[in-house]
Amino acid sequence: MDGEQHSLKRRLLLQGLAAGALAGGAPLVVAAQEKVLRIGYQKFNTLNILKGTGKLEQALQPKGWSVKWFEFAAGPQLTEALNANAIDFGHAADTPSVFANASGVNAVYLGAEQPYPKGIAIFVAQDSPIRTVKDLKAKKVATGRGWNVQFLLLKALEEAGLSYNDIEPVYVTNAADVRAAFQSGNVDAATLWDPFLAGQEISTRPRILRDGTGLSNNRTFHLAVPKFVDQNKDIVRTLFAELKKANNWTQAHPQETADLLAPQLGVDAKVLKLATERRNYTTVAVDAGIVAEQQQIADAFLKLGLIKGAVRVQDKVYPDVLV
């Protein structure tokens, strides 16, 4: 009798659990099989554009996958999320990727965007007495640790015969803080990247001292948790296939892209159009030349003591080409 009572109680318990799951809209079996691709993105980048189209969700639905998107203020925060296994895939600029490599972030390079040198710049106010990068000696410059524009600043100073130690860097953590410091007059110059740079150009008409042309290719890299890629190569291939379609459309339709993303981002369409028009949208595999670019960045920051350990970029590139 005790055995029968135990069996009955067990059946009732299981039935109760199943009923509860059904009432919640998701059977236990389905919940266990749910597959979610978690993507980190930043404002106005290729992944952001793909998010706006909804095409990736459509492509993955027949495979039983859904997509969750997470916005980050800048690359360093996104790479930390990769390291914490809070996301599976994301993008960051060249310098944040190198800093992530140096700090041991568990992520691999899967693909790279085309050079975007005009999407980064060092600038001053229109009425500033500072006319050239050389005039930045002993001046305060707003930038961020491990940002793509920090590398531009380093290279521009070298080009002008100065060193990074010749300026007073004022470190901030996001683009809004750069704008606040610049517009308050608390710094003499500032560094930004698109679309924040484009927004600054339109709103205050600053004098651009130097953009990345000839100094920094300012590439965006697509990064992922290696274990996720090992287990889901077909999903990653689908992601890149949809990204390619979105990039091709964006390249041919800058105004439509701006109009699509403006309400989503809360950024003026004029700002997004300016940023779109000076960028090439194509994702490529990480080849030897791109590895060499990244290695140059790693070596430069190691020499300055801004990263503590040597980085061998090639070791961070995923062995299979999935782009």
Automatic annotation (TrEMBL):
Superkingdom of origin: Bacteria
Xref: SUPFAM superfamilies: Periplasmic binding protein-like II
Chief place of localization: periplasm
InterPro entries: ABC_SsuA_sub-bd, Solute-binding_3/MltF_N, SsuA/THI5, TAT_signal
Domain Solute-binding protein family 3/N-terminal: 36-268
Pfam families named in the record: NMT1
Localisation per UniProt entry: Periplasm
Keyword presence, Signal: yes
Assigned keywords, A-Z: Signal, Transport
Family: Belongs to the bacterial solute-binding protein SsuA/TauA family.
Family annotation (NCBIfam families): SsuA_fam (TIGR01728)
Protein name (database record): Aliphatic sulfonate ABC transporter substrate-binding protein
Organism: Herbaspirillum robiniae
Taxonomic placement: Bacteria, Pseudomonadati, Pseudomonadota, Betaproteobacteria, Burkholderiales
